[in-house]
Write a structure and sequence with these properties.
The structure holds 2 protein chains of 2 kinds.
Chain A: E1 5-9, E2 12-16, H1 24-31, E3 50-57, E4 60-67, E5 80-82, H2 94-101, H3 111-124, H4 131-137, H5 149-163, H6 170-175, H7 186-192, E6 207-209, H8 215-223, E7 228-230, E8 240-243, E9 246-250, H9 255-260, H10 262-267, H11 271-275, H12 281-284, H13 289-295, H14 301-308, E10 312-317, E11 320-325, E12 330-332, E13 335-336, E14 343-350, E15 356-363, E16 374-383, E17 386-395, E18 402-403, H15 405-411, H16 418-431, H17 442-460
Helix pairs in contact in A: 2-5, 15-16, 16-17
Chain B: H1 6-11, E1 27-33, E2 39-45, H2 47-51, E3 55-59, E4 69-70, E5 77-78, E6 84-85, E7 91-97, H3 100-107, E8 111-116, H4 123-128, E9 132-141, H5 144-147, E10 153-161, E11 173-178, E12 184-188, H6 193-204, E13 211-215, H7 229-243, E14 247-250, H8 253-259, E15 266-274, E16 280-292, H9 298-307, E17 317-326, H10 340-358, H11 362-368, H12 387-398, H13 401-414, E18 418-431, E19 440-447, E20 453-457, H14 466-478, E21 485-487, E22 490-491, H15 506-533, E23 541-544, E24 547-550, E25 553-558, H16 559-568, E26 574-580, E27 585-587, E28 592-594, E29 598-611, E30 617-629, H17 634-652, E31 684-691, H18 715-727, E32 735-736, H19 741-748, H20 750-760
Classes of the chains: A alpha+beta, B alpha+beta.
Bound molecules: flavin-adenine dinucleotide (FAD) and FE2/S2 (inorganic) cluster (2 copies).
One FE2/S2 (inorganic) cluster is lined by residues 39-42, 44-49, 67, 69 of chain A.
């Protein structure tokens, strides 16, 4: 059965000889005619195509919620793919009942995806289930009909109900009708599946796929026929650790993992608040730090932060490794110092001095699940009112995530005062060169750059400076 | 009562057009559309597309045997462009292939040469050049010219109002299956099955009866599938008719975004005159509607703008005029509110300007000028309810408006970086199609011998809950269980000549038609029952919970037995009935009349917090009092209010439709067009329904609910404006929407913006 991709699709095993770069959404709707999975956008932005993807994790299977339009067949070998049809039982499930009872469906087009997400949230949530959390699970979904109010009422009721019952194991969840009983048999069945790598093992494919959240949107139709390779098979590229005064972030670390990791939280106390505004809950489980850097978007939110933190990239080709500072990695729009065939293995961040404070800002049209008009990060060390070191980055105002070299240098050894910050404005404006686009006019982005500079200092040093200071005439 | 279709929704079993099993020989279509906004077609080369493996055919306007122009009001729009293109996204050719992917690949191989002409994108500019669709219209009340003299204060201003994408989650689609002879069966995601039927018939030179259009449900419509679904149904039909094979056409999201029209942007000039006390004496407004390239429904949308230009206020002297201006954008079309929202926004802007000039709270000027029972609208009709004032007073009272005002004032006194604001938004929306003839509907009801019931109406289920409400009404009228009722697909063979599902009136019209049909069947059944029971007066017979009662007393007859007996005694168990809204009419030569059966009223309080450093904002709460009449289904109605509100809030703020100077859509996907998500909406949405308000028109005293709540969203603009003024009291803020974080920040920091501009030049 060479070249076949075998996995569990709901309650049955399937093998397909379609190419690994084929989108799971296309496969489900065209080949399987599982029509409960809807297409609303094909760019990960509506959630109508949401499915569950289960993977063996010791004795258990752990499930995550993924938009099928951002998932390729090549990710499926040895896994359990669950569509709405695979959640259906003779009677309505717990989640389905709640949506019906609260009148949370109108046209119904967004609904199957939402059922899958809510089920996935309650399934994976363990003891962490909360009303705020389940709202995050709705964040990847567009519903044009309901205004989300009934969905939120139904979700809150689900959280209340689940919290009152034991929900630790799959059998608990089956008893609560969250899942059909065949879920019980999945771990054993997954262990028996042939787990052949689904790509052709070419060393220099046309596309390296990490989370696929960027690639599927940018190059979707081309992936189906192109040689692709999946980085997810390199497990060693995951994880975060701190050693020798440096933080090592595996390139495959997801946004969700980055947000909660103790090492990162120690570095940036509010990292969770910031990460919660990037993409959606669903995408954060899929999108990787490495993909954010290598995608080279000028408004990458993680790459921007890492620029300010002076991160280094460990790149590898044919077993050869080299280290490149991120601050010099970007050369132009989507143009980097990456050599052909090189992959990013990990990102190394020097642990800053104890006094360094870090702040991250992002302004977008919609507060959540939207790309930045301008984003910016700062790592600054100030002692007795004097700035010791300052490292500033900014996105959306140049073809690349920009390290503000001159502005950063300007702050060195200056007192932290309004005048100092104002003195930086002209330098900042010279260093950036925004263009007008859908995310904002050039002049607006310039204004934002100024505002975010003020925001950094007033956020980090409220005891020294406030926004009001900038509005008082002398 | 729960929705009757919710179980299918949550199980993913609700069937949309392309979910139905596929005929094996089906072909898939894709559309080649104009990449330029204006120009003459020099040549079109489809050879390379045709040569692609798996491509069955490429059709152009030359393949259309019948009429090539279409449009429900003015037939001016080419189905496929011929000699010239007039907007980016205008269909020029349709390709059919073995798969949709092949068809799209082939589309990319079509080459087109166009001699480009400069596009006109601004409605005022179009107006000045005389590019007007239909004729400009003017409504007048009182004596405007002399009224200015009595005013203490006269103010003028301009509103620049953005459009809006419908963003129905299900994109436009149709599947067409050839039948015997020339006939076609068309499955279309349309709000207007009859328009699809007659337009396809005209295109192919066939009688209407040759075309059967069937609609099960839509994944949202919001007006975007009222007129505009027709085009895609036609293109699929053309291909199916030519190839004699089933053809499916499903637009991708990106295609749908750039190829279809949207809510009309408006530029509106206003002039308002008031007394020192804030009494509005005179109001004048001129609407320049950006209609896009073809008529579509623009003239009707404009008409509704004229009807709602004074919104919920009584103004004794009014002159309202407007023109549909032809530009090189996709033809703009119906979107929930249908011209009402733009008009109301202008009125609210004028009031804001007055309040700011007089240094008084906006709410005071508003409340002082609200319509009351018996007041005349500029179009002559008088308000038959006191709902405007009643809902305002209720909102003021139950939500403690005075406390909100004080709390926000305190907040603003103690905060610098963030400011809060609130606004009250009253809405008074007329219910009926303004084209009087469209206020008609019919329904077909069958009772089968097993007692089950089939109902077909001319209305389309698009998420608004029509089927549920129709079923609820049928249950109530027949006195039988809900499981007995099936609401059928909407089908032009079962119901002829239906009006589109629009104008919020679909439940009213079709519900009434169905009730008339049920009445006929019930009268026959009661006669049978009377005969069987040996009593004279069928009117003393009633059916409750499937029990046959006589004088309120149970008999040993049940629904099942009665129906079976009726059949054996040769009783007609089917009925078709027709309903036309009584008492309405409008004289367009005088621009006066009674266009509306009734008005729906309500008031909403919107509260926001603005981050004055970053220009971003959060909606804290929306609190609504809404007049529903006697709700047929409160669960459905609440959903309509909440969903409409979300769409209105989005329209005013983050839904930023942008075209470049060449008329190309910049907000071309969902990463650049942002509609409300769960975090955008406030945690607190309070809705209080005013119950038992009189309404003799709606079925069982219910009222239309679809559109009016959208306009509550307008309140956010003025709430934000208040917060902006709290931060920058001397600031000059435009009446321009959407009020994106960009616009907010640029207005709050106009001086800094200038400094930056100077520093870099
Ligand atoms: C709905 C939606 C919302 C989003 N919101 C945000 C947001 O708020 N902020 C933001 O910054 N981004 C956002 N994104 C973009 C995207 O999710 C991120 O950029 C993400 O980090 C990409 O990671 P990935 O693993 O999915 O990359 P992939 O799509 O797998 O890859 C992206 C590119 O990087 C290359 N690549 C990936 N990993 C490596 C590696 N280790 N070595 C060499 N090359 C590699 C790939 O070949 C490809 O060219 C959003 C995307 C979607 C669909
Ligand atoms: S189709 Fe919209 S997220 Fe996949
Ligand atoms: S119910 Fe229609 S989009 Fe959610």
């Amino acid at each position: 059965m060479t070249g076949q991709i075998c996995f569990l699709l709901n309650d049955r095993q399937v093998c397909t000889s379609q190419a690994p770069g084929v989108s799971v959404l296309t496969y489900l709707r065209q080949a399987e005619r599982l029509i409960g999975t809807k297409e609303g956008c094909r760019e990960g932005a509506c959630g109508a195509c949401t499915v569950l993807l289960g993977e063996l994790d010791g004795e258990q299977v752990s499930y995550k919620v993924v938009p099928a339009c951002l998932l390729l067949l090549g990710e499926l070998p040895g896994k359990h793919l669950v569509t709405i049809e695979g959640l259906n039982q003779a009677q309505l499930s717990l989640v389905q009942n709640a949506l019906v009872d609260f009148g949370a469906t109108q046209c119904g087009f967004c609904t199957p995806g939402i059922v899958v997400s809510l089920t996935g949230y309650l399934l994976a949530g363990g003891t962490d289930i909360s009303v705020a959390g389940i709202k995050q699970a709705l964040s990847g979904h567009l519903c044009r009909c309901t205004g989300y109010a009934a969905l939120q009422r139904a979700s809150a009721a689900l959280v209340r109900f689940i919290s009152q019952h034991s929900h630790a194991s799959i059998s608990d969840l089956i008893a609560l009708t969250l899942l059909p009983d065949y879920f019980q048999t999945i771990p054993a069945r997954l262990r028996q599946l042939p787990k052949t790598p689904s790509d052709n093992g070419q060393t220099s494919p046309e596309f390296w796929i990490a989370g696929g959240t960027d690639l599927c949107v940018q190059s979707g139709p081309r992936l189906a026929s192109a040689p692709v390779r999946f980085l997810s098979q390199f497990r060693e590229m995951k994880g975060i650790s701190r050693r020798d005064g440096q933080i090592h972030i595996g390139a495959l670390t997801t946004f969700a993992e980055l947000a909660v990791h103790p090492v990162i939280r120690q570095l940036i106390p509010d990292i969770q608040g910031y990460m919660a505004r990037l993409a959606s809950w669903q995408i954060r489980q899929q999108a990787t730090v490495g993909g954010n850097i290598m995608g080279a978007s000028p408004i990458g939110d993680v790459s921007n932060l890492l620029v300010a933190l002076d991160a280094r990239l460990i790149l590898q080709r044919d077993g050869q490794r080299r280290t490149v500072p991120l601050q010099g990695f970007y050369r132009g729009y989507k143009d980097t110092a990456q050599h052909p065939g090189e992959i990013l293995i990990e990102i190394v961040v020097p642990v800053p001095d104890p006094g360094v404070r870090i702040n991250v800002e992002k302004v977008s049209k919609r507060l959540s699940v939207d790309c930045a008009s301008v984003n910016s990060a700062i790592a600054v060390h100030c002692e007795s009112g004097i700035i010791q070191t300052c490292s500033l980055s900014i996105g959306g105002v140049a073809p690349i995530p920009l390290f503000l070299k001159q502005t950063s240098a300007y702050f060195q050894h200056k007192p932290l005062t309004k005048e100092t910050i104002q003195g930086a404005f002209p330098i900042l404006q010279r260093e950036i060169a925004p263009i007008s686009d859908i995310r904002g006019s050039a002049i607006y982005k310039r204004l934002l750059a100024r505002q975010l500079l003020i925001a950094h200092f007033t956020q980090l040093f409220p005891e020294l400076i406030t926004v009001r200071d900038f509005h008082e005439t002398h | 009562m729960k929705r009757i279709d919710a179980v299918y929704h949550v199980r993913g079993e609700a069937e949309f057009v392309d979910d139905a099993p596929r005929p094996a020989e089906m072909l898939y279509a894709a559309v080649f559309a104009s990449p330029v906004a204006h120009g003459a077609i020099l040549s079109l080369d489809t050879a390379a597309a045709l040569a692609l493996e798996g491509v069955a055919a490429v059709y152009t306007v030359a393949d259309i045997p019948g009429q090539t122009l279409w449009g429900s009001i003015i037939a001016d729009q080419p189905l496929l462009a011929k000699d010239e293109v007039t907007y980016v996204g205008q269909p020029i050719a349709v390709v059919v292939g073995k798969t949709a992917a092949i068809a799209r690949q082939a589309v990319n191989r079509i080459s087109l040469q166009v001699e480009e002409r400069p596009p006109v994108l601004d409605p005022r500019q179009a107006f000045e050049r005389g590019h007007i669709i239909g004729s400009p219209r003017t409504f007048v009340l009182g004596d405007v010219d002399q009224a200015w003299e009595q005013c203490d204060l006269i103010l003028e201003g301009t509103c620049d109002i953005g459009g809006q994408e419908h963003l129905y989650l299900e994109t436009q689609r149709a599947r067409v299956i050839p039948q015997e002879g020339q006939a076609l069966r068309v499955y279309s995601a349309t709000q207007n099955p009859y328009a699809a039927q007659r337009t396809i018939a005209q295109m192919l030179g066939l009688p209407n009866h040759a075309i059967e259009v069937d609609v099960k449900r839509l994944g949202g419509g919001f007006g975007g599938k009222e007129e505009q679904a027709t085009l895609w149904a036609c293109l699929a039909a053309l291909a199916a008719w030519r190839t004699h094979q089933p053809v499916e056409l499903v637009l991708s999201r990106q295609e749908d975004l750039w190829m279809t029209g949207k809510r009309h942007p408006y530029i509106s000039d206003f002039k308002i005159g008031v007394t020192q006390e804030g009494k509005i004496l005179v109001y004048e407004v001129k609407h320049y509607q950006n209609a896009g390239a073809y008529a579509d429904l623009s003239t009707a949308v404009l008409e509704r703008s004229l009807f709602h230009s004074a919104n919920a206020y009584f103004i004794p002297n009014v002159r309202i005029s407007g023109a549909s201006c032809r530009t090189n954008l996709p033809p703009n079309t119906a979107l929930r509110g249908f011209g009402g929202p733009q008009a109301m926004f202008v009125m609210e802007s004028a009031i804001a300007q007055v309040a700011e000039a007089l240094g008084r709270p906006r709410g005071e000027i508003q409340s002082q000028n609200l319509l009351q029972l018996g007041d005349a609208f500029p179009y002559g009709q008088r308000l038959q309810t006191d709902g405007v004032r009643q809902t305002w007073r209720e909102a003021e009272h139950i939500y403690r408006l005075a406390e909100i005002r004080d709390r926000i004032a305190q907040y603003n006194a103690s905060h610098f970086e963030t400011k809060q604001g609130y606004a009250v938004m009253p809405v008074c929306f007329g219910i009926s199609f303004t084209a009087t003839f469209m206020n008609q509907a019919s329904a077909l009801v069958h009772v089968y011998t097993d007692g089950s019931v089939s109902v077909t109406t001319g209305g389309v289920e698009m998420g608004q809950g029509l089927s549920t409400k129709i079923a609820n009404l049928a249950v109530k009228a027949f006195g039988i269980g809900e499981q007995r009722i099936k609401i059928e697909s909407t089908n032009t063979t079962r119901i002829a000549n239906m009006s589109p599902t629009a104008a919020s009136v679909t439940t009213d019209l079709n519900g009434q038609a169905m009730l008339l049909a049920i009445e006929q069947i019930l009268a026959r059944l009661k006669s049978v029952a009377a005969a069987q029971l040996g009593v004279d007066d069928p009117d003393r017979i009633a059916i409750i919970n499937e029990q046959i009662l006589y004088d309120g007393q149970p008999t040993d007859w049940t629904w099942d037995r009665l129906v079976a007996t009726a059949f054996l005694t040769r009783t007609n168990l089917s009925a078709h009935a027709f309903y036309a809204t009584p008492g309405i009419g409008f004289d367009r030569t005088k621009e006066k009349g009674t266009p509306f059966a009734y008005h729906v009223c309500g008031a909403a309080i919107v509260e926001v917090t603005l981050d004055c450093l970053r220009g971003t904002y959060k909606i804290d709460a929306v609190k609504i009092v809404h007049d529903l009449g006697r709700s047929v289904n409160p669960l459905v109605d609440r959903g309509q209010v909440e969903g409409g509100l979300a769409q209105g809030l989005g329209w005013m703020t983050i839904e930023d439709l942008q075209f470049n100077e060449k008329g190309r859509l910049l907000s071309k996907d969902l990463s650049t067009y942002k509609a409300p998500d769960v975090f955008f909406m406030p945690d607190e949405i309070a809705i209080q329904f005013l119950e038992d308000m009189e309404n003799t028109t709606g079925p069982y005293g219910s009222k239309a609910v679809g559109e009016p709540p959208l306009m509550y969203g307008i309140g956010i603009f003025f709430a934000l404006r208040q917060a902006m003024r709290a931060f920058k009291p001397q600031g000059e803020f435009a009446f321009a929407s959407p009020l994106t974080p960009e616009r907010v920040l640029c207005e709050l920091y106009a001086d800094e913006l200038k400094e930056i501009a100077e520093s870099i030049s």
